[in-house]
């Protein structure tokens, strides 16, 4: 009875099952990726620095990527996007990638920077500097290495290893089974960033008496950061520590100015400057506005300006000067007091003066105080760095863990004590009184909170424009200064439209897609398989009555035997 219903079953198949179902469902199963998440994966990437400074182009000049991925060690990089771990990439590799005409570079960053060895951190910082020293024509992106990206990297590495197979059959099968990845950046058009603005925040503590007739000291720190990619520059030490130190000094010294018993006959001016990593453009603009101002600025008659940068590490402080101060001048007396206080409170702290003339032939100034020195204003920079060319000043490796809170608090106390001794004229050897102590002690919780807040987001000057979410940081800094200082105001300026001092370009942070693809040989093989499969299906359909008869005959013979 069962075999008698065979005719009806075949009629159902012929009449109700669409032909394309028989043909295409097996094909979809055959070509579908093994891991669906790797079929198409989207992740965030950070583009390399791209800006013009004083008309000179810097950094990566393009952004478009739509190419197959390759890893280091591949036979060719031509029209390919190279994906590599940053710790494995060298300057020689990068030059080879550029010379072979690669279409782009994706560098993978470790998730946990603290797990890197000191030599690995040094290698990454050296690579950053070499990448930023020249103009780069190919698009260069950076991304944090997630488990999905690790899997993609391993697959690309396997498909582009170029190892010799044991036999021709093994080579053919390896080629057919390998899976590549097409890396695509949808937003691949670079454009100049619109509505660029730089903000300076200033406030002051007025001395007791007629303000214009009192001596003045200026304290300065720039709050922006710099690294190989704007979206990855957190700048904990340079210059998050300088900003935190300035705010803590404002808090401490403001307590002396609020009491009539301790109100000194000295003016203190505080400045948080913008675009410090771009040749101190914010400081330059602020100096010009105050010197040319008709509102009676305190800057032209200031005794000296103290710039704070990178104070969160090492057991040394270096006072960088463009011209050594004359003996018994305010600058010389302050330096002597700084050394005396440091030796008295912390014998392990080494404080010295470093003299370096300004080289106007260089494109970039070395230190922030040089902006003041150019205008014949006495100024110096205090930093634990001895050289302006040290790698840690401008690196994505400058993270929160790099700052030693104990040493930062120690340095703030020494600076604050030396300033207090100077403004109260307690600079003789016999006067050993400590002013910043007990109720006025440095608060480590205050410094910690500011460091955590400053390093919670990248602070590149490009990201601190009016249209960026990072702009809220500028407002927070303004509110913090207004809490302790008087006449706090934020002044903004825009680059000259006809001859801009600097130009920033977008995109800085975007998305990249990785699509799983097969090699061209696989397409040929798949075409042959599809053609053969279609021929078999065609022969079965056109000769269906013969197939039906054969099946009936076989079934009848089995029925007789049973």
UniProtKB/TrEMBL annotation:
InterPro entries: Nicalin, Peptidase_M28. The chain crosses the membrane at residues 20-40, 520-541. It is a single-pass membrane protein. Residues 216-292 form the Peptidase M28 domain. Keywords: Endoplasmic reticulum, Glycoprotein, Membrane, Signal, Transmembrane, Transmembrane helix. The keyword Endoplasmic reticulum applies. It comes from the Eukaryota. The keyword Hydrolase does not apply. It is found in: Endoplasmic reticulum membrane. CDD domains: M28_nicalin_like (cd03882). Belongs to the nicastrin family. This is Nicalin. It comes from Limulus polyphemus. The gene is LOC106460521.
